[in-house]
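Cross-posting from the modeling subforum.

Setting up a comparison between two proteins and wanted a second pair of eyes on the formatting. Protein 1 (sequence, then structure tokens):
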Amino acid sequence: MIAIGSFLRDVWRLSRPYFRSEEKWSAWLLLASIILLNLSMVGMNVVLNFWNRQFYNALQTHDFTAFMQLLFTWRPNPGGLPMPGFCEVVAVYILVFVYVTYLNQWLQIRWRRWMTTRFLDDWLSDQAYYRISLSTDRQAVGTDNPDQRISDDIRDFVGTTLSLGVDFLSNIVSFASFVGILWVLSGDIRVLGVTIPGYMVFVALVYAVIGTWMTHLVGRPLIPLRFRQQRVEADFRYALVRLRENVEGVALYGGEGEEQGNLLDRFHNVVTNWWAIMTRTKRLNALVSGYGQIAIIFPFVVAAPRYFANQIQLGGLTQTAGAFGQVQSSLSWFVNAYGTLAQWSAIVERLTTFQRAIALARAGAGVGLVERATTDGTVRLEDVTLALPNGTTLVAHANVVLQPGSSVVITGRSGSGKSTLFRALAGIWPFGQGQVARPAERCLFLPQRPYIPLGTLRHVVTYPHPPEDIARETVAQALRDVGLPELVDHLDQDRNWPQVLSGGEQQRLAMARALLAKPDWLFLDEATASLDPAAEAALYRVLKERLPGTTVVSIAHRPEVQGLHEQRLVLEREDERPGRLVAQPVEAAAQ
């Protein structure tokens, strides 16, 4: 019960915000309409139960007039409401069914849109998406494949929650509607000298309890298996996407065999887990199918003694069997829905753990390095200690002041922590202590591997600003300045630019962004490493010419780049001990 209570609280926490949001009135109206239409379908089932009795009685008594009335028009019912014909009931039933499906889909897409927007907002706020990517949790609880959780899991959660919730409510109402009918139709039975009124109600209850208990025993392992299937499917799909995005590198390395082996290993996990699901589902289906088939004939067997004793007619027998089937089906909702419940449980757990991971990442936004604005235009590190996610200290108690107007290059051995220092200056590195002070003016950070978004080339160049905010000719001139004049005619084309552009072209394009942004401080983390020395020097000259008021801070290895700056800082770190920043002459590095 504790696990069920915890699970239902998770469902409530995921569902409640939408029905209390700015869309709450339309959400509740749609939900109420869906419930009302479903309940009307239950009411029509009650009508059909009584219609079934009169129809079979008409067959037994060879009453052709009643037969035709019950099919096409209506039949008078002395002392009560007339019984509508089958055609009228079915016509209304079809209309209700069409609109209950339509309104359900309408609510699904509105709810999914709201949840997707909220999850995206939370995931992207306070750079939670970046902090989650740095998780050291080997099991990646709540952090693996966020794309699948936002895309597939939210969709499945909304659809399954609505389906199960409305179906469960309909079964409750159906039980309440038919249990009284079954009680009256059952009559009394004497067992060991004891008279039991409404005995078929108790038979249905015992039948459902036994079926539910057995179903839970057989199907319980499906819940963790479904959870794992979601993950291994996403891992396999992610590996395929990675291959698609890096086809050139794989081709140049001749890594087809390695990639195939990696993909087949991941797919092997999919197949292995799927076999486990198949085996467990086979057992569950055998139980549920047998349970359902027995339920078809079981009420006739139980009610047969009264029929053969001439206590009820054929119509009464079929009505009793129908009412028993409705009561038993309502009580057996857990049995019939167990497979869906297992899938739903896995979806809820994935969304809940993802939501908690986001909350934890956002809660850590103010922990560690402290950012503040400077008033004298400088960039400063004040008693800054930087560490890796595993706790290894890269830099300890660093104090650095970078003056505006004087270009600086930061060098050091590979793995010494230069890129981590770059991320700390950008304010995105969460592991450390101390203060990072930057001017309130604009700063732009260009990593070694530029981000190329989806869209037209013009959008790619102006990112993250909307392309319409910058004149087309201004964008074209920026491309010419960085040595990409051949791309000007393709500005309005939407292509797979990460694969179309070479590494050097992508880095040139990033420099074009800098020319358009005109930042006061420009930080470059080996942002020209894919270019030859002559091209690097040319780009730095363009930066100085086009952005005379911009202070450039570069992280680099090559002496040629070092010689293009006025100051040099070396990150010295040896024997896995904390490093330190030491000022050295630029001339010594350029030799």
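Protein 2 (same layout):
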Amino acid sequence: MHRYRSHTCGALRESNIGETIRLSGWVHRVRDHGGVLFIDLRDHYGLTQCVVDPDSPAFSLAEKLRSEFVVKMDGKVRRRPEGTDNDDLPTGKIEIYVSEIEVLGPAGDLPLPVFGDQEYPEDIRLKYRFLDLRREKLHQNIMTRVEIIKSMRRRMEGQGFFEFNTPILTASSPEGARDFLVPSRIHPGKFYALPQAPQQYKQLLMMSGFDRYFQIAPCFRDEDPRADRLPGEFYQLDVEMSFVTQEDVFAAMEPVITGVFEEFAKGKPVSKNWRRIPFAEALRKYGSDKPDLRNPIEMQDVSEHFRGSGFKVFARMLEDPKNQVWAIPAPGGGSRAFCDRMNSWAQGEGQPGLGYIMWREGGEGAGPLANNIGPERTAAIRAQIGTKEGDAAFFVAGDPDKFWKFSGLARNKVGEELNLTDKERFELAWIVDFPMYEYNEDDKKVDFSHNPFSMPQGGLDALKGQDPLTIKAFQYDITCNGYEIASGGIRNHVPEAMVKAFEIAGYGEQEVVDRFGGMYRAFQYGAPPHGGMAAGVDRIVMLLCGTTNLREISLFPMNQQAMDLLMGAPSEATTKQLRELHVRVNLPQK
């Protein structure tokens, strides 16, 4: 028999009854039933109930076992007594009558329990992550992640893509976040950067003639952490294709992402025909460029009904042509208590309040706004937005460029409070026609709004003859249930157009050559039209595991202060290391 095990702790069934076997694993828990000890033994594959009675030669040692001891047990498989089956376990019809125990690895007092799923402080969970990862739910999430990545690879290969690995040490690039820099020992005073994304390399692969690339790529960005974005690093399904239009990218990737969701959705419906929503429409209808389409509420511009009305606050705002009034319908929300609650919520979000109209029995509008604008305008609003008796509508006014995010939060809040958002499905969509540029109020200049390497709609002619803030790009996102899970674009592969695009954003031609020399040179020697995208592996796994925090689907994450409590990173470098790297530390004054 093998030194440590003849079977795993998830393998034994009724067909094994009568066999002498050997198991090794962790003591999950010990139960004393009238002097008979029941030990649940756990390994990666499952859990088996082991029984030690006072007649067993192993009993004295069994009494000393505690949770998370690693032990080897020899014994005989037998049928569980009638009425004690555990249908929740694959091994739930059998148990092991133990004849011999060997302790392979004793365990000290546990800083957090492995048995059970109770909440525990995050700093303890991350410092003792190896224990946290033994807990059933987190262990299952990590294995789900493994299977999702396997599914992605299989589906990408089925679509004719080839997996390539791109460099980790590279040059700094303006991808929209801070780089992690790595000092060079061989080249004093110079630095590598960890890639924020393999963007330039995957485009260079297209220049090299490889046609269809993918990679489960690590990406590194020195950004502040939040629940849906881990500090330091994340993984993406990175994709690029040659000789493609935007439609070709959509046709290749929709089946991959839909298939992954269907495979791991645990029976929840997954949208088959993805909607395509222009960026401007997404902001206007949903107040978000990553709308949660499980919420049926669509906002509408109702400015005309308030223009010149008796509600002077809105009427005066509308004298400025850029201002608008948007309505947020609230089906079933026509109670004073709910409307007051929403008004208080808005004030908690830093707003002066949230105007509303309620529609009472008979269809008459009620509330301060209805009283001010009168029954005709109230009825016209109702006819436009489709509210009925017992419904309400909330109103946001001003410059849409400034209030759209708040209106989206209000839409989400109404959907949550009134149970309109269907939590039991996955709604996938493309957001298209992103603006190529945006105005940076801080720097008082035009900036790229998304990916600087994207092709503008209209090409070089648009860059030369159109107001930059009106140019749309061949850029697109995939959204799911309120999260952006992928982003991509058709690339600007024309050297003159690339230089012009960066020039509009304040980069001179020489700066483009200096910073993107490899790609710029490649474009001079026969560049195919190409495009692609990158899907966030972590966010997809998070959604499919039904959690809202990426730490619940990642092996060894950092905490909110971007510190690895398990390994003690970041840590100070030694004087010798700094000297070798020609680096001097200049700490800020306290």
